[in-house]
Amino acid sequence: MKNIEFIIKSLEDEGYETYLVGGCVRDKIMGKEKSDYDLTTIARPNEIKEVFKDLNTIDIGKKYGTIKVLKDNEEFEITTFRSDLSYIDRRHPDKIRFSNDILEDLQRRDFTINSMAIRNGKLIDPFDGRADIEKKIIRAVGNPDTRMKEDYLRALRALRFATTLNFSIDKDLLIAIRDNKSDIEYISKERIREELNKILLSDRPSYGIKLLRKVELLEYILPELDRTYGFDQHSTFHSDDVYNHNLKVMDKTKKDLITRIAGLYHDVGKVDTFFIDENGEGRFFSHQKVSSDLLKKRLKELRYPKDIIESSSKLIERHMDNMNTYTKKSIRKLLRRLGEEDLYRLFDLQKADVLSAKLKDTSNIENGKEILQEVLKENIPLTRNGLKINGNDLKALGYKEGKELGEVLNMLSDMVLEEKIENDKKELINFVKSLTN
Prior knowledge:
By secondary structure, the chain is of the alpha+beta class. Helix content is 51%, strand content 11%. Strands 3-4-5-2-1-8-9 form a seven-stranded mixed beta sheet. Helix 6 (144-150) runs parallel beside helix 8 and helix 18 packs across helix 19 (340-355).
């Protein structure tokens, strides 16, 4: 707080009218802590730089009047009052005009709850943002259709704000978002991904997913999930369609992006694997593999990092493993395949899955966690690297570099993992010798 007061005072002392604006004002009214502060000022970019010539400044958007000022490892974005005149690319203003009027600056912003400013403790609220906060509603500044046509990222922001704040969306804004849905093509996959992540990590992510479907954007962003809507599982174990089951599972997982993604997509492959058996029961053989493959494709489209793609897809592939009673052998294998962190994620996903179906017995999952604790205390190698024998030892026994050598090491690793042989160098060498006798 000390640094933001310094930044404001420095501008005001030079005669430049300066306001806190946007999200930090909204959060202050809502009683939330805010670590990021945005400022708007009558000072022009070069004047901002002159005021803070003794500090580091960065032209992050000088064309649009934005200068970043760094003080004591904190960053502050300061933007000159402006009007946005046109949006040629449907994302960024092609032309702007610097202004001397805070009201003109607030008028260009997206939603009323973000179009408030504070100066000297006085709230500037020309579009009744405070009242909309009290009503818990997301409403556009001015004409919602115009706001969406200017920059369609605002559509995703509206859905995200509604989800994270647990607000509703104004009817006219919802209509404008839906009517302009094809403009999602103008938004980069990276920006879509970032807004989706914020929805997934909210207290109730299913609300955001349902909003995406309500405005007909789910079919653009997560089409594999969208097609599960209304898909009857014909199962005595489920009362929900695949879509609502996926959403329930996601909501029940911890606030972890990888687990939430896995929960959202864990059963989407049921659409492709569905058949009804002789008893009239829905069956979905290998749906976990199909679901995993569909997720990989979708996450690549949305430019997700490789580690998130790999972990979330592996969770989906293994999410049915708890149908068999966990043993030390099975837990060791899972630990080797997933690693400790992802194995705990798998347990979380499985528990959410069970609790979202009719049978709510999680005892096997809890048993798996207990076994994992025992396994972690043991001195049994989970990979080839932990073996007391290596490739050079096998070469000394007559093996040549190549496929056969690797296969023998893998076999030994499996045998040690399954406690069929001790991880003792002498014993391992004797066993290898016996293979050639």
